[in-house]
Write a structure and sequence with these properties.
This protein is α+β, with helices and mostly antiparallel strands. Helix content is about 20%, strand content about 45%. It is built from two helices and 14 strands. The strands form two sheets. Strands 1, 2, 3, 4, 5, 6, 9, 10, 11, 12, 13 and 14 form a twelve-stranded antiparallel β-sheet that branches.
């Protein structure tokens, strides 16, 4: 019992102490986005994503955001899962959340001449959280990229590392919002109650 309480307490403290964006492995979020119900085969400046929890918006001028079943350029990309995926046709893009993300991630790829991207994270006051981080976006293949930040990521800007200023693809995206303060307080009270109960036995 002591080990279990200790593990919970350490987990809660590590979340509270996390002051930087930390890369994390694959997870299933509170909301997922595979673009399956979105408008396909058009070039648009914005999509509402994660069931209305946020938007993905183009950054810069260019054709726009494109949802398609396959996309050829220097190499070809096909969906990671489902029938479609999303990418920027000559534009970079950003995810914006009304309730900041505690966890955010998904699968990235490119069909351009060079792999990978850079991701910058911003809080609710639009302050950048630390330095931009590298994201793996292989040519013609999918790679998982995920991040966690206890303070909440309100805006996440994804910029291509290739010469075409775009063509970074996303699929099977995941989003988990920052817990409400009341939820965090309840978890803390529960841990304290368990510890007190254990001490009385």
């Amino acid at each position: 019992m002591n080990k279990w309480i200790g593990a919970l307490a350490v987990g809660a403290l590590s979340v509270a102490a996390n002051s930087q964006v930390v890369p994390i492995g694959p997870f299933v979020g509170a909301a997922s986005e595979g673009y399956e119900t979105q408008t396909r085969f058009q070039f648009l400046p914005q999509y509402v994503v994660f069931g209305g929890a946020g938007t993905v918006d183009q950054v810069g001028t260019g054709q726009g955001l494109h949802i398609t079943t396959g996309w050829g350029f220097f190499v070809s990309v096909f969906p990671h899962s489902g029938d479609v995926f999303m990418g920027g046709a000559g534009v970079n893009y950003e995810y914006n959340f009304a309730v900041p993300a505690f966890r955010f991630g998904g699968y990235f790829a490119t069909n351009a001449d060079a792999p990978d991207a850079t991701v910058a994270f911003y809080d609710a006051n639009n302050n950048q959280i630390g330095s931009a981080l590298a994201a793996s976006a292989p040519q013609g293949q999918w790679a998982w990229n995920g991040w966690e930040y206890a303070g909440g990521m309100s805006r996440i800007v994804i910029r291509a590392n290739n010469q075409f200023n775009g063509f970074i693809m996303n699929d099977s995206m995941q989003y988990t919002p920052v817990p409400e303060p009341a939820t965090v307080a309840i978890v803390g009270l529960g841990l304290a109650a368990l510890a007190a109960r254990r001490r009385r036995k």
